[in-house]
Design goal:
- The protein has 296 residues and is an alpha/beta fold.
- The protein has a single domain, classed as Spore Coat Polysaccharide Biosynthesis Protein SpsA, Chain A (Alpha-Beta Complex).
- The protein contains eight helices and twelve strands.
- A seven-stranded mixed β-sheet has the order 2-1-4-8-6-9-7, sandwiched between helices.
- β1, α1 and β2 form a beta-alpha-beta unit.
- α2 crosses α6.
Length: 296
């Protein structure tokens, strides 16, 4: 199933990353697009958990002993990176911003908020548009909205979102890379960064990491950049300030992550964490029996 391209006069493209075997998930995504009168373009995902996958084709993105993954790279995360790289290349080639989505995204927000990203006189490379990157659909909803009133905007700096969450003494969980707006310049920076650093941590944390280091201290607004959250990210690999994305997040998320896998929860799915590429040995290892059909 492949949808036609968006009309040329639209502000952005909608790209969905989808594996060939996940037809049901694509149908669900098509329905959520139709409900918002959006047309999408499918990006064929790199399925790293099938027997036909050959990591040798992607060794340029494997660096020894780097970052959070150290010497073992989860194949699920590796496939996600390679799929996102395909989407970034699409954005650079088209020279047009794109809303990049994984196929387990449900659209819950307003199109006006997405359009508002372009109406504001702001410079940005990346805008998180998903519910995990902002607290507006969590128990922090009221406090979060109150904190955001000062901005008079549909977006806030990503650093503000992080520090608001930390200041309210709530854990800032994985932000998710399931729905974000990227500019052509931002996509080009990410491509260059991937070539330099390789796959060294989960993609969503990488997006955060290269969005908050290199900022001015006053951009943090409040909160201590020396606290464990920032120390954790700093220790996850060398900071390349040349990537340094100008990142924001929607105040109210446009997309909600739809849990998949065993028990309906990504955290309970054993498959994504059971197959690794051992960088030192140069082989794929399996820690337990695997059924790739259950993987995200």
């Amino acid at each position: 199933m492949t949808a036609p391209l968006l009309p040329a006069e639209s502000l952005f493209d909608v790209l969905v990353i989808n594996r060939e075997r996940d037809k049901a998930r694509l149908e669900r995504f098509a329905a959520t697009c139709a409900a918002k009168e959006l047309v999408y373009q499918r990006i064929d995902a790199v399925d790293a958990l099938t027997p036909s996958f050959q990591i040798e084709e992607y060794l340029q993105y494997v660096k020894k002993g780097q970052g959070m993954f150290h010497a073992q790279i989860p194949l699920g995360s590796f496939g996600n990176w390679m799929s996102q790289i395909k989407a970034w290349r699409y954005v650079v080639k088209s020279n047009k911003p794109a809303l990049i989505c994984e196929d387990d995204s449900d659209f819950i927000g307003k199109i006006e908020d997405l359009n508002g990203i372009f109406e504001e006189d702001l410079k940005w490379d990346l805008v998180f548009c998903n519910d995990r990157a902002c607290p507006a659909t969590t128990s922090l909803s009221k406090e979060w909205i109150d904190c955001c009133q000062q901005w008079r905007s549909v977006t806030v700096p990503l650093s503000f979102a992080i520090n608001t969450r930390l200041a309210l003494q709530k854990p800032w969980t994985a932000p998710g890379g399931d729905c974000y707006m990227i500019s052509p310049a931002g996509a080009e920076r990410l491509l260059k960064g991937a070539e330099k650093t390789g796959v060294y941590m989960h993609l969503d944390w990488m997006l955060v990491r290269h969005s908050i280091f290199g900022m001015r201290k006053e951009d943090f607004l409040y909160g201590n950049p020396a606290q464990p959250f920032y120390r954790f990210l700093k220790k996850s690999g060398s900071v390349d300030l040349s990537i340094n994305l100008k990142a924001r997040t929607l105040i109210r998320p446009f997309a909600r992550h739809r849990p998949q896998g065993v028990g309906g929860s990504i955290t309970k799915n054993p498959t994504a964490r059971s197959m690794f590429y051992d960088v030192k040995k140069g082989i794929v290892i399996t820690n337990k029996s695997v059924n790739p059909e259950n993987d995200l």
